[in-house]
Amino acid sequence: MNEPGDIENISYIIDLCEMIEKAPVRFGQSICDFKSDDYYKFAIAFAIYLVCLLADNISDYNKHIYRKIINWQNLYEIKLKLAYKYLYMTNQEVYDIMNNIMPDVKQGCDKILSECQSNTKTKSLLQSPVPYRNEIHDTIIILRIINFCERIEVIKETMADLNQFQSIRDYFDMNQDVFEMLSLNTMNTGEQIAKLSKKFIEQNALNCDWKKVRGLRQVTVHNFPAIDLDKFWDIVKTDIPLLLKFCKSFILP
Q1: What distances in angstroms separate CA 180 from CA 35, 173, 195, one per listed residue?
Q2: How far apart are alpha carbons 13 and 7 in whole angstroms?
Q3: Do 249 and 189 form a contact (C-beta atoms < 8 A)?
Q4: Residues with Cβ < 8 Å from 212, sequence gap 6 or more?
């Protein structure tokens, strides 16, 4: 393995697998604990997705060399499933990937890294800077944005009786809990946008109105009573779906 980026990715995968391995200590050992905590399921699925994403970025050459140690195709298929069908995956499916597949991935990556560390050339590459470290950071942020945007879309699906009200204000007056859930997830979306690198925002300025969604977060946090509900709903109804579409296309072009 003579690519610094590949070696770095293997190191990241090991770190993530160790985090997944320690999760039952924090959240609970059984599938019952898993079912009772939505955050548990998402946190594990998120970490698994990152493992699969990093594995997919390994060069084809090294995938071929280490094909008997890591089932790269299986990880690719898991990545697709988490990206497109996460909301429909059962607790058992995610739980099984956590317990049955991730330990083997870690064991395989440990073996690969051990081989690299015993080789003078690859050992020096482990210490070299990786040019796309910021891209990994932005990718993690985009995954978080996808999560919050999908939550917003699920909440919107519960608003089937919206057309029975004269205005969005009337609807929110009668459904304050829906407004609060939308506000919270929109605020969280804005917070994640603020963490994206300046380079990423500039490169994708035409894809999304980043400033608009981020600006709503400022109002939500600092001047909640003054929210313009019509503008708020316009962002939730129009801009969030566009943002979600772009973020998904960024992860899986």
Answers
A1: 25, 11, 23
A2: 10
A3: no
A4: 235, 239
What pTM was estimated for this model as a whole? Answer: 0.54
Q: 48-84 pLDDT, tens per residue? A: 988 998 898 888 888 888 889 999 999 999 999 888 8
**Cα dihedral 243, 172, 167, 229 in deg (nearest 10):** -50
Q: Is 150 exposed, middle or buried (0-12, 13-18, 19+ CB in 10 A)?
A: middle
Three-state SS for the chain is CCCHHHHHHHHHHHHHHHHHHHHHHHHCCCHHHHHCCHHHHHHHHHHHHHHHHHHHCCCHHHHHHCCCCCCHHHHHHHHHHHHHHHHHCCHHHHHHHHHHHHHHHHHHHHHHHHHHHCCHHHHHHHCCCCCCHHHHHHHHHHHHHHHHHHHHHHHHHCCCCHHHCCCHHHHHHHCHHHHHHHHHHHHHHHHHHHHCCHHHHHHCCCCCCHHHHHHHHHHHHHCHHHCCHHHHHHHHHHHHHHHHHHHHHHHCC
Cβ 72 vs Cβ 63: under 8 Å: yes
Structural tokens at position 101: 């597949």
Per-residue pLDDT reduced to its tens digit, 130-139: 444 556 678 7
Cβ pair 55, 72 in contact under 8 A: yes
Neighbours of 78 (CB within 10 A): 23
How far apart are alpha carbons 107 and 130 in whole angstroms? Answer: 24
Contact 113, 14 (CB under 8 A): yes
Measured between its terminal Cα atoms, the distance across the chain in Å is 27
